[in-house]
Recover the amino acids of this structure.
């Protein structure tokens, strides 16, 4: 289980009453559509042999967007394409695609339908990513061809049209770079976010509540649907712990940055749960139940006996639904544990940012005497803690994801 | 006998048309007022009769809002009222399924009269069902969900049970009948009976809402009386009959004692008047090998009734007969054993079993 520890750090003042422990749980589930076609990834070029890599290598000067210079636009777009490729781990992606294609062509593939389904699903998803990049490259190179043609034929109308098209591509490329940050297999799935107060009594429960509020606001800003699955209030103020479910596009892709798990879910399958390993506790009022008591309290707690991991849900209006909901949380917790275990194994072999991701402090919040929130993994910082606590954490997330992925692979 | 259609069931709030337009600030005002009312309760209900605490009442308040708003998901904007980034500010008007006056009225009833939340919103979420309930009809309890689980287990091991005729005696809102009818295979049928005309009309409403008219027949009458035509033909009987001893009625939690129908709670001096009636009559109604499950007041009644069925009514429900009947009693009172046992076999009878639910208190 990962836990992120948020502490107030203050140089001059013992203002440590804002300390809390924040556990974030991000786990995905989802369904992918499959595509079956296979296609070789030949390098694209213009009619006179210019390639995207060639453009970058030529070091054309990149001017401001307002300058009507096609070379500048083209260079900016080509750079973006390289960033996107790096983020998609392009070389690995092509190798993996080849491997999957070989497997797809095996005549006995469908002897094991589950395995075959997984293979064709992954193949389809990687193909779609590859095609998107290829389409981008092709569009750029065709525009360059057209602009050259227009200049040769002195067609100013066509030339300005193509310039506009390049400018539009350049403007869209930022968004596409960002999209590429969220290209993990489970990134488009919904996720759970859990916050748990650490030692420190009421103050830390108060802090935990603020952190939970931060995630709720963050999710609302994205237009995600937020459901409180489990919430245990503190005795005096704040929360002991809370779990929310966040539904919406790329919810998991963003939230995973908050646990430092970039590889989460790559080729990952759910941990099997045996019914006999579970103890299901239905919370009831003390004393006689049944007809004696009318309560809307229908909380259910499930204990996974071998690991001691538990999940509680009391947000649904029936025990039956709370049990289903708690099972989903338990599943994601067990998956999370397994991911953490795998990440730890990987971290022993590779030196990466994820090394500090598990069970460590990821951000420090200073509210006094100066004001700052700093990500300890990326050194990204802002001087307005209020805006962060109101949910503006995308800056932290994106900077973490880009640091992680842009380091991941050398130039394609 | 009054006509069944004489009693018109009330429509739960969440099924009504959203015809009331209110400004979001007026609704927030109501929400603030309602929350204040809740915090004034504190733990006083818990202390007086083990009623709801303010945390639970807050949750109910959110559910009331959820049921009343046209757009369910926008209720979260209110629940997160501490949130500064409040999307509600952007919405001028919201559509409600009941008037703002009614909202004030209903929440006052919830707190001051202790009117059950389920009667306020007109429904209870039970298993994966949302059942209409109203005064005069017992609100189905979460413990009773277990009866459906037990039937589900039994049916999955025995094809014949899934295809036969079942009876739910004292069906109330129809909860158990609807729950098991969704488990039964294509030929399974259920007859649901109740003496109360309110219960019969609400059960029929719920059956129709789930489109189960061809599976469940609701009949009015006392216990086995309306089942004379199917004597000896049932493959299963389930029931949650009244089992609270008469003396205990006055001390019940206010939501139950002041508002729920005594007819569905009071089981006579020992609480076992109807349980004994059911045990006495069940064997004649069932086919050999039939299934019989009922809810009791707890371990004491449970043990007594098992012993009674084995020994006292041996004539009509012989020990050998019991062997072929699958007997399940659901233990409810967990005062004596908090983490009580899972399964006890009657000595020498491998087929019969008593299932005691293992429950753990908070």
């Amino acid at each position: 289980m990962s836990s992120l520890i948020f502490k107030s750090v203050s140089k001059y003042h013992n203002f440590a009453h804002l300390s809390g422990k924040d556990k974030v749980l991000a786990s995905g589930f989802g369904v992918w559509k499959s595509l079956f076609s296979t296609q070789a990834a030949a390098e694209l070029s213009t009619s006179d042999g210019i390639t995207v890599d060639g453009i970058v290598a030529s070091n054309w000067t990149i001017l401001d967007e307002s300058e009507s210079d096609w070379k500048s636009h083209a260079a900016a777009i080509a750079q973006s394409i390289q960033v996107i490729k790096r983020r998609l781990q392009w070389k690995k992606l092509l190798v993996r695609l080849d491997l999957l294609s070989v497997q797809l062509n095996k005549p006995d593939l469908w002897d094991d339908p589950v395995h075959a389904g997984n293979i064709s699903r992954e193949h389809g998803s990687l193909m779609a990513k590859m095609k998107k990049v290829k389409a981008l490259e092709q569009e750029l190179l065709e525009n360059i061809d057209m602009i050259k043609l227009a200049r040769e034929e002195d067609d100013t109308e066509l030339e300005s049209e193509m310039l506009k098209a390049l400018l539009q591509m350049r403007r869209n490329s930022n968004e596409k770079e960002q999209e590429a940050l969220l290209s993990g297999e489970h990134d488009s799935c919904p996720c759970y976010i859990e916050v748990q107060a650490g030692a420190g009594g009421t103050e830390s429960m108060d802090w935990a509540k603020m952190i939970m509020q931060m995630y709720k606001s963050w999710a609302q800003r994205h237009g995600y649907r937020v459901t409180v699955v489990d919430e245990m209030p503190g005795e005096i103020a704040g929360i002991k712990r809370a779990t929310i479910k966040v539904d919406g596009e790329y919810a998991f892709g963003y939230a995973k940055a908050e646990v430092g798990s970039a590889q989460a879910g790559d080729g990952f399958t759910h941990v099997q749960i045996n019914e006999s390993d579970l103890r299901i506790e239905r919370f009831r009022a003390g004393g006689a139940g049944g007809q004696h008591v009318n309560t809307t309290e229908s909380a259910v707690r499930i204990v996974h006996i071998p690991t001691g991991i538990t999940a509680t849900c009391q947000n649904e209006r029936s025990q039956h639904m709370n049990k289903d909901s708690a099972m989903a949380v338990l599943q994601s917790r067990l998956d999370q544990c397994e991911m953490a275990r795998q990440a730890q194994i990987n971290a022993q072999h590779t030196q990466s940012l994820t090394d500090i991701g598990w069970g460590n402090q990821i951000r420090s919040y200073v509210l006094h005497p100066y004001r700052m929130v700093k990500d300890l993994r990326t050194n990204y910082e802002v001087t307005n803690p209020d805006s962060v606590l109101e949910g503006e954490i995308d800056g932290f997330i994106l900077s973490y994801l880009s640091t992680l992925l842009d380091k991941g692979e050398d130039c394609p | 006998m009054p006509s069944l259609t004489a009693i018109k069931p009330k429509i739960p709030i969440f099924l009504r048309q959203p015809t009331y337009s209110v400004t979001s600030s007026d609704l927030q005002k109501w929400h603030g007022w309602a929350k204040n009312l809740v915090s004034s309760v504190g733990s006083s209900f818990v202390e007086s009769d083990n009623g709801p605490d303010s945390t639970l009442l807050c949750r109910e308040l959110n559910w009331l809002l959820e049921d009343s708003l046209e757009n369910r998901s926008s209720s979260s904007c209110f629940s997160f009222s501490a949130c500064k980034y409040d999307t509600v500010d952007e919405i001028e008007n919201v559509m409600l399924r009941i008037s703002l006056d009614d909202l004030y009225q209903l929440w006052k009833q919830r707190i001051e009269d202790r009117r059950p939340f389920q009667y306020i919103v007109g429904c209870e979420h039970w298993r994966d069902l949302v059942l209409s309930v109203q005064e005069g009809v017992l609100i189905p309890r979460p413990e009773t969900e277990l009866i459906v689980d037990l039937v589900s287990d039994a049916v999955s091991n025995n094809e014949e049970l899934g295809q036969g005729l079942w009876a739910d005696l004292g069906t109330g809102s129809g909860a158990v009948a609807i729950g098991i009818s969704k488990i039964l295979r294509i030929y399974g049928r259920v007859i649901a009976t109740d003496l109360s005309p309110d219960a019969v009309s609400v059960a029929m409403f719920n059956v129709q809402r789930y489109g189960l008219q061809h599976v469940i027949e609701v009949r009015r009458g006392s216990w086995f009386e309306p089942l004379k035509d199917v004597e000896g033909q049932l493959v299963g009987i389930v029931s949650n009959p009244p089992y609270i001893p008469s003396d205990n009625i006055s001390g019940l939690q206010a939501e139950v004692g002041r508002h729920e129908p005594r007819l569905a709670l009071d089981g006579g001096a020992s609480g076992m008047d109807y349980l004994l009636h059911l045990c006495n009559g069940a064997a004649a109604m069932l086919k050999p090998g039939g299934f019989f499950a009922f809810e009791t007041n707890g371990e004491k009644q449970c043990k007594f009734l098992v012993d009674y069925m084995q020994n006292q009514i041996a004539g009509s429900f012989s020990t050998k007969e019991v062997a072929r009947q699958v007997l399940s009693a659901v233990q409810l009172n967990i005062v004596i054993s908090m983490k009580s046992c899972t399964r006890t076999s009657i000595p020498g009878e491998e087929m019969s079993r008593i299932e005691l639910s293992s429950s753990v208190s908070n």
Summary: Chain A is about 45% helix and 15% strand. Residues 1-41, 260-268, 351-358 of chain A have pLDDT under 50 and may be disordered.
